[in-house]
Specification:
Elements lengths: L3 H28 L5 H28 L22 E2 L2 E5 H19 L9 H23 L4 H5 L7 H19 L15 H20 L7 H29 L4 H15 L8 H25 L7 H19 L17 H32 L6 H6 L1 H6 L7
Antiparallel strand pairs: 1-2
Length: 405
Amino acid sequence: MINAGDTAFVLVSAALVMVMTPGLAFFYGGLVRRKNVLAIMLQSFISMGVVTVIWVAVGYSLAFSGNEGGVIGNLSWAFLRNVGTRPGPWAAHIPALAHFSFQEMFAIITPALITGAFADRVHFKSYLKFLVAWSLLVYVPLVHWIWGGGFLAKWGVLDFAGGMVVHTSAGFAALASVWVVGKRKFAPGEKTVPHNIAFVGLGTGLLWFGWFGFNAGSALAANGIAAQAFVNTDIAASVAMCTWLAISWWKSGKPSMVGAFTGAVAGLACITPCAGYVPSWASFIIGFLAGAVVYLAVWFRNWRKWDDALDVWGAHGIGGLLGTILLGVFAYVSVNAAGHNGLAAGNAAFFGKQVAAALLVAAYAFGVTWLILKILNRFEPIRVPDAVEQAGLDTELEEEEAYVL
């Protein structure tokens, strides 16, 4: 029953998604100030270790085995018991371990996305506690609700590759973390611009490259849906990048490299829930709206003076939310096998479900994240002392420096 081509495709896609986490480390590392580059990069890399342990022990089982009230799975697959080289219930043509590996890489990068919001000011040990709690209390339940046969899946809600599960959840968790942790503190005259835009470019390239595995691999087969998702991913990212660049150029009078990179990431996040469910022409519209709407979201965040250091809420939270809603508009049965047309084809009911689900996921991620951080902060301060923040987390907490000349 195992298809060798599909198995190879899913395993390669899993490897591509794994590359996205180092890509995120470089993307975030280049955006922060020089004194905090190692701290933010370590927060991405350590997720590869900690979340893997969680996913093997209980995470994958709670997400995909059983169905307790439509809310969570059970522990029948804990420590990969009954998960082996034979096909599993979620893909009848690839080994269950291939499905496990692919989903593991999603679980790794999602909490790492949040770190860009509270960059420069959180204890590493506090982040480790948050990483464990958030993975178990936010990410795992959301996976079950939407991909593991939970109540949203039974209601008919769609999310091809993680617009809600990954991006909306991480983005609105990031917003909650900003409100709990508070604003960064800068010395008079201190520069706050990205310290290494070349790193940002490297990170963007790795993210874009890995995103083909992220989206196309979510077809779980080397087929036409995977090809559609691949093409849609590239179109949306490209159009969003050009849209953001055009807007920022018009506003400032100069082209912005960081703006172009941010626009590309916004487009990638926005197309993620739609990738295998919409026709190619729709990805042009989705990319344009991603560039424009996320640009406005970042402007709004600046106007409100929310210190989301690396615009996680805008790029991922609003990008994922917008993409989930646009899936409700542009979903087309002739493209996907999910059996849903969108609002553009006259299906208002499906559009309503997508909007409701997106808002529910955003509210759940925000609320539970806020509670986790508040509880952690009662036992030990999450935030580093002012002196440590001023000197830099790299030398003060890790006693290492990114650049020794």
